[in-house]
Task: structure prediction
Amino acid sequence: MADTATPSAVTDASNWQFQNSYIERLMDHAALTAAHPDDTLILAGPPRYISPSATTWDKMLPIGAVQQMQITNQKATVPAMGIGSGRNFFLSGKAQGTATIARLFVNGRNLLRALMSNAVVAGIDVTKFDDAAAIARDAKFFCNLDSELFMVPFGLGILFRDKLHNDLGAVYLELCMINSWSLGVGAGQTMVMENVTILFDRARPITAAGAGGASADNRANYDPASPSSSTIFQAIFQGNVNDLPAAVGGEDTVNNNPGGTTP
Result:
């Protein structure tokens, strides 16, 4: 009988045992290694991506109180045929990107002001346009999509990590332009929400290097298909909690020293 104590990960059909395996990756600790909204950061910044550095991240504004964000990237693809052949082939155009953001309306920068932080950092006086976007240069509430301000493009960075601080991926939406803005108020609702739709030029894959600085408990060596590569997996399922480094919160039960085996 197969040992079912430790499920395996099926990476090809030759070792598939459905009662004792996950597909592609180990999922026993998926709660720790899955992407989660808590570990996702959205930033507004320059219209084109700049190689990451501490200075780069300093120029970008984290956007808080976001309740929902959706990114869609699609391109026109049409089937074609040739006389004398019964097979299809396909012709494809450039990808077109859209994004939507829903955010809680709170004291401080409203959503339009947060998204246009690149223009504010550049020193643009939003009251000097033919159509003003705000009542004062340092105003926290922007509106009026007719203002020339909203012809200034911006960029959006989205960083994904898991609970073990692994970088799962990062994308930069370049040359973003606001297509619509709405603010809804209804009796009996628990919150007032702002919503925007955005068009962007391209979704560029980026690295999150430098964001957050170096982490002492980074699990960058974790391989989702190999339990032996995960220290925390071994500690929880195959070893003792003392196998964990102190930075992760291992507890010395012998010396009663919470936080690690070293006093």
The radius of gyration is 25 Å. Residues 102 and 195 are 4 Å apart (CA to CA). Residues 231-238 form the longest helix (8 residues). The first strand starts at residue 8 and ends at 10.
